[in-house]
DNA sequence: GCTACCCTGATCAATTTCTTTCATGAAAGC
DNA sequence: GCTTTCATGAAAGAAATTGATCAGGGTAGC
């Protein structure tokens, strides 16, 4: 893939802050003509640098008051165990993020739920019941100090 | 704030997947007229349910190959220590997310960097050098199994 | 029943935004 | 020197958004 020039970087920075800006606005702020801005955005989209444009919602106003960071250890790391765990992660929208980690735990999950009770239900039904899951340590989020999707460019 | 009806929920689900859809498209998929869809989106935006519309970028294609989950413990929890740590978090775009947690650690950070070297530099310069930071445990992300911004609605 | 109220869908005009097309100028290759 | 290529900006056309208006259909209260 081609190098990403300074102009495109400026557009990306704007887009990850607010993609509802008009092209003419973005062009002006990025110091280029509207045509050029349009072409660059098209390129970035085609190249997959821009993965998606999404709306970010307020979890509180949608009654998802609980956010949990869970650390998971599997019993073994055979294909079947990993596949089984992956399926759980994939199929449950309550699990927003999941990363395989180096270090003390195998996985870190970020989970959102309405309250402690519904979290507990979800937890025991889908994670603890899974035969490959050895251990889950849940930490409740007391405060979201930062929750950005902006990559440092 | 008012209750959120089923129609609005359908719009929100669509918007968190792809906010570049035309209003007419969204209206059709959500099973309502364009006028109604427009009014509902306006409401949701005014009520702050829709916080922002952003572009999600591909970290790999932008040469941010490293993602780290770091757990931080502070020396004490006086105002000054928290303020000092908060400032570090706020001022560094490499730190994408930061949550104050219950449990064994005070904070969990998600950090992105180009490579191990630049991470190491960032780490020692801004976190380990902070007098209020007692301990940092870094876990490298081996695989991003899921990284969604969609709330479960 | 009747009224008032609210939500909905249809329609329309004005504006804004997106997309294509065309022409220009700079740089590279022959 | 000439051509080709490429990125750019201006302008025009196509499409979408915005905001208002009006009418129909529930429904709750009187």
UniProtKB/TrEMBL annotation, chains A, B:
<keyword id="KW-0804">Transcription</keyword>
<dbReference type="InterPro" id="IPR036390">
    <property type="entry name" value="WH_DNA-bd_sf"/>
</dbReference>
<keyword id="KW-0805">Transcription regulation</keyword>
<dbReference type="InterPro" id="IPR000485">
    <property type="entry name" value="AsnC-type_HTH_dom"/>
</dbReference>
<dbReference type="InterPro" id="IPR036388">
    <property type="entry name" value="WH-like_DNA-bd_sf"/>
</dbReference>
<dbReference type="InterPro" id="IPR019888">
    <property type="entry name" value="Tscrpt_reg_AsnC-like"/>
</dbReference>
<protein>
    <submittedName>
        <fullName>AsnC family transcriptional regulator</fullName>
    </submittedName>
</protein>
<dbReference type="Pfam" id="PF01037">
    <property type="entry name" value="AsnC_trans_reg"/>
</dbReference>
<dbReference type="GO" id="GO:0043565">
    <property type="term" value="F:sequence-specific DNA binding"/>
</dbReference>
<dbReference type="Pfam" id="PF13412">
    <property type="entry name" value="HTH_24"/>
</dbReference>
<dbReference type="GO" id="GO:0005829">
    <property type="term" value="C:cytosol"/>
</dbReference>
<dbReference type="InterPro" id="IPR011008">
    <property type="entry name" value="Dimeric_a/b-barrel"/>
</dbReference>
<keyword id="KW-0238">DNA-binding</keyword>
<dbReference type="GO" id="GO:0043200">
    <property type="term" value="P:response to amino acid"/>
</dbReference>
<dbReference type="InterPro" id="IPR019887">
    <property type="entry name" value="Tscrpt_reg_AsnC/Lrp_C"/>
</dbReference>
<feature type="domain" description="HTH asnC-type">
    <location>
        <begin position="1"/>
        <end position="65"/>
    </location>
</feature>
């Amino acid at each position: 893939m081609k190098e990403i020039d300074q102009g495109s970087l400026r557009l990306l920075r704007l887009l990850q802050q607010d993609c509802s800006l008009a092209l003419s606005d973005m062009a002006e702020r990025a110091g280029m003509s509207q045509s050029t801005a349009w072409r660059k955005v098209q390129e970035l989209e085609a190249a997959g640098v821009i993965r998606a444009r999404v709306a970010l919602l307020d979890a509180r106003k949608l009654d998802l008051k609980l956010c949990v960071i869970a650390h998971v250890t599997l019993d073994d790391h055979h294909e079947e165990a990993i596949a089984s765990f992956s399926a759980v992660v994939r199929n449950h929208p309550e699990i927003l993020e999941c990363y395989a980690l180096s270090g003390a735990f195998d996985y870190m999950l970020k989970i959102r739920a309405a309250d402690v009770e519904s979290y507990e239900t979800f937890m025991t039904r889908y994670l603890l019941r899974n035969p490959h899951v050895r251990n889950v340590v849940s930490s409740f989020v007391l405060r979201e100090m930062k929750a950005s999707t902006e990559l440092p460019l």
